[in-house]
Amino acid sequence: MQPTFLVVGAGTTGIGAATRLTELGIDHLVVDAGDRIGGMSASVTDEQGFTWDLGGHVLHSHFPEFDHAVRASGVGINQVTRNGWVWLTGDGPQSLVPTPIQQQLTELPTDLRPDAPAHHLADYYLNHFGRRLYEQFFEPYNRKMWTAPLHEVDHGWTSLRSGSHTRNVPQLGLAGSNPPAPAEAFPYPIGGTGALWQAVQDTLMTPGSTRLGTRVLGLDPDKRVATLDDGSSVSYDYCVSTAPITTALGWIGQGHQTTGLRASRVHAVGLGYRGEPPPALADKTWLYCPDEGVPWYRATMLSNYDPGNAGPGRWNILCEVPSFPGQTSSAADSIGAVQASLAVLGADPARVQSRFAQTIPFGYPVPTLGRDDVLRAADKTLTGYGIYSRGRFGGWRYESSNQDYGYMQGRQAVDHALTGAAEDVYWHPEWFS
Q1: How far apart are the C-alpha atoms of 182 and 165, rounded to whole Å?
Q2: What percent of the chain lies above the pLDDT cut of 90?
Q3: What start and end residues bound the annotated signal peptide (predicted)?
């Protein structure tokens, strides 16, 4: 008899698992508490017709299986010219600086110590970029993003996710001293990232295998039975879960194993405007802002990714606002401050047609010191019961969480359950950079 799989979550990792199971002809059920496909890569179209991704997602690929899924989906792909900037001081367009910021120095730092030990993220940035860049950008920006002090954050992820070149070899140079590098382009799905994942489900997954609006209430790990909030129960041989690993451990009464894991909480605040964007924003793809007087740390010009995200004669921008531990504000509470900050860049508040606000309780899995020791122990416990906790928060490894990595985590979890094949994408994303 063939094994059966329960897949919890219809985001990138759950879809990766389900497409692999469909290829193998293995019985499975996908359940998701939400009302749409895509998880954190879903897209929402509001009543005014503006489309919002739930983050500033960029589509990368390191895997032929992911490339196949994108092609098979049939979704059109825009090639967007990368044009990221840093808004250093939040006092107007004059403080906008092109990224990477380390290439905009007027004089090279003399306090670099790249071979010195780095015990945490603060050490890493100080050693590689010097105190001036650390204090102006890296420390305040990363503190806003992670909602954690840098001495509590590991620096291992920087080899994959930070800097201007592969593996983040720091590139320090004087502004204007070298010819600018040719502009790079990145792919983006027409209709938003959610359109891609909906199409992947429609084309590559077993019809009728997904139940939206269905939450797992608990698992009996010995009998391998899941109880769902619609009153039903599901027996399985293996479970690929993309719920937060903290939740998965709670299902089996092992919540104490989550000590040391930390997540950021993010307010996604989008504003849709009629007319053309102001000159300061017209050609940008995203802005980073370290200034603590500006509520957001990143703003993404979604209408520059795909004009259809706003529609003719309109534009829209999504801002990610951190919610620090102890704060109880909602996403809606941030709309006024976000609108005021964009007005400083020339966005006329009188032209706002849409205000989108959604709180994301789990924004980023923070790569805290000692995180992998916690995850290794938790993974051993869960896999002992046939549960593969994978994905952005199922795996809790930021450096393994881009859409292509997430998709492959799901596929590799299935293969490991069936054959013991290695799960290198989850544990060793640096091998695929």
Answers
A1: 13
A2: 86
A3: none
Assign residue 176 a region: left if phi > 0, alpha if psi is -120 to 50, beta otherwise?
left
Residue 207 DSSP code: T
Q: d(Cα 414, Cα 240) in Å, to the nearest integer?
A: 8
- In 106-215, which ranges are continuous DSSP H helix? 121-133, 139-146, 158-161, 193-204
Per-residue pLDDT tens digits for 358-412: 999 999 999 999 999 999 999 999 999 999 999 999 999 999 999 999 999 999 9
Neighbours of 365 (CB within 10 A): 25
The gap between the terminal CA atoms of the chain, to the nearest Å, is 39
> For 106-141, what is each residue's pLDDT tens digit?
888 999 999 999 999 999 999 999 999 999 999 999
Label residue 208 exposed, middle or buried (CB < 10 Å: 0-12, 13-18, 19+): exposed
Nearest-CA neighbor of 113 among 137, 134, 99?
134
* Cα separation, 23 vs 28, whole angstroms: 12
DSSP state letters, 44-109 = EE-TTS-EEESS--------HHHHHHHHHH---EEEEEP-EEEE-SSSSGGGEEESSGGG-BSS--
Per the structure block, which two tokens stand in for 80? 């967007």
Strands 185-189 and 77-81: antiparallel
* Structure tokens, 309: 């995200």
Delineate the domains of the chain, giving CATH numbers in brackets: 5-46+59-77+190-261+367-432 (3.50.50.60), 84-168 (no CATH), 265-361 (3.90.660.20)
* pLDDT one-digit tens code per residue, 399-432: 999 999 999 999 999 999 999 999 999 999 989 8
